[in-house]
Amino acid sequence: MAGAGLLEPGSYATRAGSHRKWGGPAVQTMYAAIDILLVCVGGIFIYWLRFGLENPLAAATISRESQLHRIYLHGYPGFLLLYCGLIVLACISENLYRTPREITSFVESMHVAKAVVLATTLLVLFIFTSGNKEISRGVVAFAGVLNVLFLAGWRYAKRQYVLHRAAHGKGLSRILIIGAGQLGQAFASWIESNRHLGYTFCGFVDPHPNGDKRVLGSLCDLRAIALAQFADELFIAPPADAPVVKEVFLEARRLRLPLHVLPDLYDGLAWRAPLHYIGGFPALNLHGEPIPAFGLAVKRAMDILVSSLGLALCSPLLALAALWIRMDSPGPVIYSALRVGKKGMKFRCYKLRTMVASADAQKESLRASNERCGPFFKMEDDPRVTGCGKWLRRFSLDELPQLVNVLLGDMSLVGPRPHPLDDYERYTIEHLRRLDVKPGITGLWQVQARRDPSFETNIALDLEYIENWQLWMDIRILLQTLPAVMKGRGQ
User: CB count, 10 Å around CB of 449?
Assistant: First the structure.
């Protein structure tokens, strides 16, 4: 049937029922509790395999192992509790505590794997930064693998049980659809094709019967039809005028039946749109690109952690560079200037000075020699660059003070490079899209097209990063930055 594809898994009508029945706070809490229990069981099991079975025959070895157990056991419970918390937070970020029935087991298992890998990676980072030498990295790695199997396994078993009940007609909600128009027909066809989601279609009630055998009567027969069909829920499909909706509402209240109104789909634009409320007003979300709040929080935590460690480890190098700059040319060691950051916010960006003190005043006179295509300025042999500045730029050492900007929250480790105000003033409207995120010390452009003169290439890579951002992308770019810097091709 042509209309059968109009409503697909993920539509409002699907969520209206399945979320109400299966996604309540009590059920979500129970799911989280099961995850925590399985993570604890898996952690204890892996620990027992690693330490409890090692050299079980030798008495001296057993005694020595007992001492090791007392040392190891002192640190493991705290990290296990931390791991449980990270697992739950990662599962929340993957929406695993309100998973709709219509997604496949494979997709759900992939979400579980992503959540466990993220939580395990964060745990390893915490162990590393804490300086703990007693926690076995092998135990953590094997616990992660086991948790993927455990958490995906119990969800698969639960899903099969629910689907088995639905296939045998158990736990199904019997629905009547008021309105046998195009949307009502499409919704009924989709319900009949997806009985595993917990619904069974009883028939139509239509103010204007059209000869369809599934139309059981007109609106005045609603009460009798609902009782005869043992209806559990009512759905109104547009087009339906206000008097019809009011009449059905009053009858549903008398029958004590849930009533849902399918929103107008506007020729298909809202087929998969979720319904939410703004100040009590229902609104269809026709388009949206949700910000991964948990991922951004982890990104910020990683920024703080890495920038703090970087400043501490690089402080001797910064001191030597400062001494060299002082000896090489007059002027301050640190160069600070306004840059344009996220959403056009201006901030003061810090670098080691690699040019003469009057470099900014000379920039406009040199702009005719710009070797870049577009609004940003760069020259291969810039006469303003000092002797030591060439070496600092070659290996990007001049950008180390920007770790302070990262720590302050003006920048991130990874993101589009911040441009000076005079370059920003030459942006077109489309160029402004690169300011949707925080600027970064490194980014796709630095690792893929560092010497490409085209500003449009720069913009394309920035937008690719913004539109496809994931936490793993930041980690990959950071890992690629080190060998790119070591090649000494900076300008």
Answer: 14
User: Does residue 239 have a cis bond before it (omega within 30 degrees)?
Assistant: yes
Give the pLDDT confidence of 61-76 residue by residue, as tens digits. Answer: 444 444 444 444 556 7
Domain interval for residue 369: 293-486
Nearest 5°: phi and psi at 413?
Answer: -65, -40
Where does a domain end: 225, 245, 264? 264
pTM for this prediction: 0.55
117 and 99 share one domain = yes
What strands, in cross-sheet order, belong to the sheet with 334-340? 346-352, 334-340, 419-420
pLDDT in tens, 281-297: 566 665 555 566 677 88
Residues 222, 158 within the same domain: no
**In the chain, what is the straight-line distance between the N-terminal and C-terminal CA atoms, in Å?**
63
3-state secondary structure 49-98: HHHHCCCCCCHHHHHHHHHHHHHHHHHHHHHHHHHHHHHHHHHHHCCCCC
Structure tokens at 291: 């910000």
Residues 39 and 84 in one domain: yes
**How many structural domains compose the chain?**
3
